[in-house]
Amino acid sequence: MEGALIARDKVGVQDFVLLDSHTSEAAFLNNLRKRYQENLIYTYIGSLLVSVNPYQELDIYTVTQMQLYRGVNFFELPPHLYAIADNAYRVMCSEYNNHFILISGESGAGKTEASKKILQYYAVTCPTTEQLQTVRDRLLLSNPVLEAFGNAKTLRNDNSSRFGKYMDIQFDFKGAPVGGHILSYLIEKSRVVHQNHGERNFHIFYQLLEGGDKDLLCWLGLERNPQKYTYLIQGRCAKVFSINDKNDWKIVRKAFSIIDFTEKDIEHLFGIVASVLHLGNIQFEEDSNGHAIIRDGSQIKWISKLLGAHLSILQEALTHRKIEARSEEVLSPLNVDLAFYARDAVAKAIYGRTFTWLVNKINGSLANKDSTQKTVIGLLDIYGFEVLDTNSFEQFCINYCNEKLQQLLIEMTLKAEQEEYELEGIEWEPIPYFNNKIICDLVEQKHKGIISILDEECLRPGEATDLSFLEKLEEKVGDHAHFVTRKLADQKTRKSIDWVDFRLLHYAGEVTYCAVGFLEKNNDLLYRNLKEVLCNSKNNIIRECFLLSELDNRRRPETVATQFKNSLTSLIEILMSKEPSYIRCIKPNENKEPGKFDDFLIRHQVKYLGLMEHLRVRRAGFAYRRKYELFLQRYKCLCPATWPHWHGPAVEGVERLIKHIGYKPEEYKLGRTKIFIRFPKTLFATEDAFEYRKHLLISRLQAKYKGFLGKRAYQKKRKAAIKLEACWRGALARRAAKKRTWAVQTIRKFINGFINRKKPLCQENRDFVRLSQYHYLMKLRDHLPKNVLDQSWLQPPSILEETSEMLRKMCMRNLVRKYCRGLTAERKGQLQQKVVTSAVFSGKKEGYLESLSQPFLETRLKENDLNPKVLQLIRGENIKYVTPVIKYDRNGFKARERLLVLTQSSAYVVEMAKIKQKIEYSTLKGISTSNLSDGIVVIHVPEDNKQKGDVILQCEHIFEVVTKLCILANKQNLIKVVKGSLRFRVGSGKEGTMVFTVGPEPQVFKDKTGQLTVVRAQLSRGRQLELPPWISICREHSPPSWEPRRD
């Protein structure tokens, strides 16, 4: 253990068992002092933790520290509160038993803070879910609520618990906190109406005044200044620098919302708190008859409003007492003293029962509805031993409680351990210790104890007073060694005891109690008419606290001391049924100063806490003991001979087991029914081996189980697959059969359709025809002509011939349309001329086919090539075409080079700068040309004085010239293609003949007969060119816009 410490943690020893002088009290205190001065506030005595209050914030409670101590063996890390908490948690989870952590010490020693730190540790480190987060938050936030209503500043502690609290934290089988339950013990109700000098009332009063918003205080009728309220100023320290009431108020308000308080609950709760303050401000005075009357009615009006009680009835109940005389009820007026007593009794009763209601409400929010078995860890945070300047009934009960807890510690550690060694036959030298059972018996023994005597005085008829109670004590327990009064004391002691005091010699030291008020506080009676007012209250909380059934119960309620004794007995029974862990808290000084170590004060606490005796027992004893059956059951897996089952006696099995593990003789002892292990490290080594072996076994079990699950899943899947395959094969077979049936029917239907295919469309051949049409159309879709020149077309079936022809025409028309739309204006004009040429010359004149591939030009000569004089002569006319030609004159047919100029309205034969002849298109009689490729064209003109005769021209581009001429003249029908010869007019009344022939060489001459002979050279023999198909297509599908026109 020491090897794991860092250098700072080696100041002193961290376990008192390791002290060389373990019997020396001086060595004990010296080790405690060394560690405290280094802020090492925790030290072990075996498994018991000693905690010294540092009176300052230390950086040892972080989440990192929590994770560091989580799941670590007890002595592997330096002593800490978290180690105690984690050890209890781990043992609870592994052995499924219940635990409790007993936190004890004087008031101001740090018990409340220790319980809060343990609760925070479980909240952070335990596994949780989103659903359990609410439970965890409620467990944490129940503390500030209970502290606000149950804690107060005392002379020794600024946050002293004025009630006892035992909290059970419930865990499920996974170790997650799933719920909780709180038991409260004897809240100090007298503090509500009275505080000693330097003390305060409960925190909630100051938090409400300091932190409550203005509207809330106004609704409650309160002012922010605590000096205005009688119940808050008796201790004369309403403001404390170490307490931030405003911030604490915010935490309490937040806690209320998380702990599931409704707004109505909160409203009624604060109404009760405010009504207590208003009760304290009610003042009484005597009337003329000596009866008590309320001096100022403003406070009681607020109380009536907040508690929902009738004003006049409440006022009467505070100043009168209802007395039953036989069958009659009589109202008896109270004097001033009794009125103040009634007022304070109401305040105490209201606050005390409201606190009980508050605990029950918190328990309701923490309750786990799941009925499965749970393990618990209990936290006992109860008031510490108190010795004040004036000790009253409350201190008597508190110190009695501490005596009982000390007795529990003795029973479960010192006494029980030594008795166990003797019973088990373990060699043992008894260690003396003080057994405080004698003091517990003095207080609680039936008929002879102080509580029984007190109850007798409270219940006996006649005038019982505190002095008569003291006399009874002297009479019945006067001879007890731990009881002293002034009358029974010796001369020296008598000076420190008053006549109304008695002194008890507690385990923690002598305490002198003032008997004044014992009977009153033990009775804790509330006048019947006051109880009736509260039972009929409209405040829901008050109505739940004061039930109407109480009014029907005529039995006298148990006294406070008896109730407290019974609840303590129940608590001890609860604790005795659980495995204990102990934290002993020590207060280092009376002034709450950090770093100050008061040897005298601490020595006193070490003595009465029995720490030296505990150390001696732990040093001489054994750290661990367990019944053979339980030890064997837990660790049998570490030895092959005992695993998985041992069939002999358990003690023999344990012997075989520890021999296999390798225990040394000094490390253990075997008793009659148990094995005792001396050193913690021996147990830790065994536990580590068990954990390792457990993981191996679990891995093997998991592998087997996973194999089993895998096999079961495989078999299930295989069975399902076989079934699916069978079903699927059936489905496929049915589908195939259905498909074959359909195929047979379809084939039969189409065979029948084929047989009747030539019949008109009917039921027998409809499907076949439709299929034929579909297939033809689908095939045709992929074999359509790509352009207008493509003459291919898919051969249709006979039934679709008409449709096919319509589709062919539509397709061709569409191709032509697409082709035409893609033409430029210039190209379109050329094609229009070519169409005209085709209409005139196709199949009539040689050379036509050769001319098809030669596009017509707009003009052969440009306008700039003409002589300016000619241009001047024909100005005003738009020149369309100019080409060189050879003109044969009428006299001798001599060839003359000329230009043929075509305008919009006329044709001109031009020689250099002269116009030799003008031919208007309107007078044009005809145009003739031969069927041979000789280039001769004759323009026939009318017989008039202007024209000398027909014009005979020879030009290279005969088709172009004739086409442009006929288009401009718009006289295509006047063009003649002649064979052999033609007649032409030479002059007025004269005609000539032109003969066309074929010769070896081309020539034009006048023969002997005077005729004009035109010879065309012979063509080589070969296949005659056919007309390109696009020409006929264009003819066939040309739109009307292709008709020749004159521009």
From TrEMBL:
<dbReference type="GO" id="GO:0007015">
    <property type="term" value="P:actin filament organization"/>
</dbReference>
<feature type="region of interest" description="Actin-binding">
    <location>
        <begin position="568"/>
        <end position="590"/>
    </location>
</feature>
<dbReference type="GO" id="GO:0051015">
    <property type="term" value="F:actin filament binding"/>
</dbReference>
<comment type="similarity">
    <text>Belongs to the TRAFAC class myosin-kinesin ATPase superfamily. Myosin family.</text>
</comment>
<feature type="binding site">
    <location>
        <begin position="105"/>
        <end position="112"/>
    </location>
    <ligand>
        <name>ATP</name>
    </ligand>
</feature>
<dbReference type="GO" id="GO:0030048">
    <property type="term" value="P:actin filament-based movement"/>
</dbReference>
<dbReference type="InterPro" id="IPR027417">
    <property type="entry name" value="P-loop_NTPase"/>
</dbReference>
<dbReference type="InterPro" id="IPR000048">
    <property type="entry name" value="IQ_motif_EF-hand-BS"/>
</dbReference>
<keyword id="KW-0547">Nucleotide-binding</keyword>
<keyword id="KW-0677">Repeat</keyword>
<feature type="domain" description="Myosin motor">
    <location>
        <begin position="12"/>
        <end position="691"/>
    </location>
</feature>
<dbReference type="Pfam" id="PF00063">
    <property type="entry name" value="Myosin_head"/>
</dbReference>
<keyword id="KW-0067">ATP-binding</keyword>
<dbReference type="InterPro" id="IPR036072">
    <property type="entry name" value="MYSc_Myo1"/>
</dbReference>
<keyword id="KW-0518">Myosin</keyword>
<dbReference type="InterPro" id="IPR010926">
    <property type="entry name" value="Myosin_TH1"/>
</dbReference>
<dbReference type="GO" id="GO:0000146">
    <property type="term" value="F:microfilament motor activity"/>
</dbReference>
<keyword id="KW-0505">Motor protein</keyword>
<dbReference type="GO" id="GO:0005524">
    <property type="term" value="F:ATP binding"/>
</dbReference>
<dbReference type="InterPro" id="IPR001609">
    <property type="entry name" value="Myosin_head_motor_dom-like"/>
</dbReference>
<dbReference type="GO" id="GO:0005737">
    <property type="term" value="C:cytoplasm"/>
</dbReference>
<dbReference type="Pfam" id="PF06017">
    <property type="entry name" value="Myosin_TH1"/>
</dbReference>
<dbReference type="GO" id="GO:0006897">
    <property type="term" value="P:endocytosis"/>
</dbReference>
<dbReference type="GO" id="GO:0005886">
    <property type="term" value="C:plasma membrane"/>
</dbReference>
<dbReference type="InterPro" id="IPR036961">
    <property type="entry name" value="Kinesin_motor_dom_sf"/>
</dbReference>
<dbReference type="GO" id="GO:0005902">
    <property type="term" value="C:microvillus"/>
</dbReference>
<protein>
    <submittedName>
        <fullName>Myosin IH</fullName>
    </submittedName>
</protein>
<feature type="domain" description="TH1">
    <location>
        <begin position="845"/>
        <end position="1018"/>
    </location>
</feature>
<keyword id="KW-0009">Actin-binding</keyword>
<dbReference type="GO" id="GO:0016459">
    <property type="term" value="C:myosin complex"/>
</dbReference>
